[in-house]
Amino acid sequence: MKKDNLIKSSLAALFSAITIGALTYLTYKTTFGLFLIASFGSSMVLLYGYPESPFAQPKNIFFGHLLTSLVGIMISNLVPLPIFITIPIAVGLGVGLMILFNVTHPPAGGNPIIVIIGSVSLDYLINPIITGSIIVLIFGIVINKFVLKKNYPK
């Protein structure tokens, strides 16, 4: 095992835990609402492990999560088909739109599944998607740029 890989993986683990810890605290120890979604855990891999990736850039993280969650909500509410049909339609449409609009963020590809299974409302876009993504990005920018001294965002 190379020393550089050990350091990189340790820092990614630490800062992922701190960022998700903040979202978890806000979700479970305050009355401010829901800030945590499963796909934010996957976002940590890119944000702290591979911040130079185009998929880890702020516009991709923010708009990728927003777009795919919106697609999931719209499909769930407007397409009167069984869930085993709406989920693949929503995931496919979300992935296609992320690529079309150049805001691809692979972890966001799972958001339509979360949204449809959870039967969420439009409020879900505010909390946890928009506010959670903003918090993730604040942590990501501060940690990558000022703590790790990386050129982030690119």
Describe the structure using short key phrases.
mainly alpha; 154 residues; 72% helix
Question: Any overview of this molecule?
Answer:
- By secondary structure, the chain is mainly alpha-helical.
- The protein has one domain (3-147).
- It has six helices and no strands.
Shape summary: globular
**Low-confidence sequence ranges:** none
Largest sheet data: none
Order of helical and strand elements: HHHHHH
Measured by DSSP, the beta-strand proportion falls in under 5%
List the helices and strands and how they pair.
Blueprint: H1 3-29, H2 38-49, H3 58-78, H4 83-100, H5 111-118, H6 123-147
Helix pairs in contact: 1-2, 1-6, 3-4, 3-5, 3-6, 4-5
Please sum up the structure shown.
With 154 residues, this protein is an all-alpha fold.
